[in-house]
Design goal:
Helix content is 22%, strand content 19%. By secondary structure, it is α/β, with parallel strands linked by helices. The chain has one domain: FAD/NAD(P)-binding domain (3-Layer(bba) Sandwich), CATH 3.50.50.60. The two termini are 22 Å apart.
Amino acid sequence: MKTDHDVLIIGSGASGGMAAWTLTRMGIKCLMLDAGPQVDFDRHRDSRAVFDLPFRGLGEPGRFPHVTQASEFDANFWLDEKQNPYSYPEKDPYYWVRIRALGGKTLRWGRASWRLSDFEFKARDHDGFGDNWPVALADLAPFYDRVEPMLRVSGRNEGLPQLPDGKLIEDRSTDSLSVQRFIASCKQLGVPTTKPRRATGTLASSVNLLLPDALATGNLTIVPNAIVREISVDPKTGLVNGAHYVDRRSKRDYHVSARIVILGASTLESTRIMLNSKSPRHPNGLANSSGVLGHYLFDQIYVKNVVTAIVPEARGGKGPRNLTGGGGYIVRFRNVGKPDPKLKFLRGYTYDFGSGFTPNARYLPLYGEPLLRELQNLQGTGFSMTTMGEVLPRFENHVRIDPNVKDAWGIPNLHITARYTDNEHAMAKDSMEMAEAMCKGAGFEVLARHSQMVPPGESIHELGTCRMGSDPKRSVLNQWNQCHDVKNLFVVDGSAFVTGGAQNPTLTILALTLRAGEFMAAEMKKQNL
């Protein structure tokens, strides 16, 4: 394939989209490969009744065994696991949740937009575990400042070191009476709360915030349906010089050349490509002289509905109109600063909370007419919390190529080994106990509580496996998302993360990519790349 580009970008989601936005606006010609099709929301979207669907909205059995988010209404968004199998230890399932379409997972992200703090960037300095990032909040803050207005992030600045202030559209919405009571209960327990921070707009995605501007420059060419098999290497220099890809529909092989390659295919897919890109110069996978590539896989723990409660005064539709409704966010409060010796875990967790729904029937020990009457009585009374907690990055949580498992295009796929440890289990248990205390302090009636975490991967926040670091023997990338071993290869998605906190990672991915892109452009101008 012949184009006039200098930079090849693999992936079109948050990281790939931001790389294209940054470089094309600086006059750099880019070619983007994406494994999925371009979605036309007017032509490819249709409204149908549930009874018109073959599986009544529940989806084809076995098509998405690890994608709990999928249904028959949106099945074409999610990557079909029959075509894209992977493996894991029998007792340790991993839920690898993927989307293949132009825009990637930004087509379906929840738009939560939190900054990381130096409790994450310099985590080792706080508690002695793991490694620090090679960057600090001060390095990334100017880029957060530029990304937040692009996404029109709303929220409130609270002046908390564990939740850095941002360039936000102030959320001035008032809280319902039940939420006010809950916030007061949290305050009594020394627990900080705030409004959610999220990108505004119904589709704050790469396809409507980043790629249109990049295309408008005339410097971006996008090739959809291009499944990258491996990155090619110049045998004389060891530098990358392009990529081999397979057309998703025809299954024909192609090669495209490039001066610089940027990987932004999402955490595990980018690492899969690098591990499959073996050569005499890189026998253990591309840019893997450290042996770290594929290791330190982590995400966030999720305990969905860790506590489900009701606001008792709202029973039977009683109480004022503003009694229930709305929600908020609980900021990390455990191990802020030095680790608490009374706790049995390092790092911390956060919660989302919301009110005004009707509790699920499974929480009520009733059947038939009594159950229906009680559900009517409890309509709109519900209050629920979900825990999001930090997972410690560990070398033993890793991915490798499974030569016996290949996708429908003949590309070897991953074997994923990831399990939660005593640290995560203790964190989940503590979060359950604290959530119950907060609810009871607000005068709510607790219907159920639990500390069962979803399987690793289900949060869709997989991170690590191609980590940044100052020491080339312990990391794959430097502080600019540039490979230590291969100076013209950059990896800008979540695989670069050293730690992740309990925060959603997308805002940090965007800020890191903007920073890396501007560094890359400067190095190109100096003829260093």
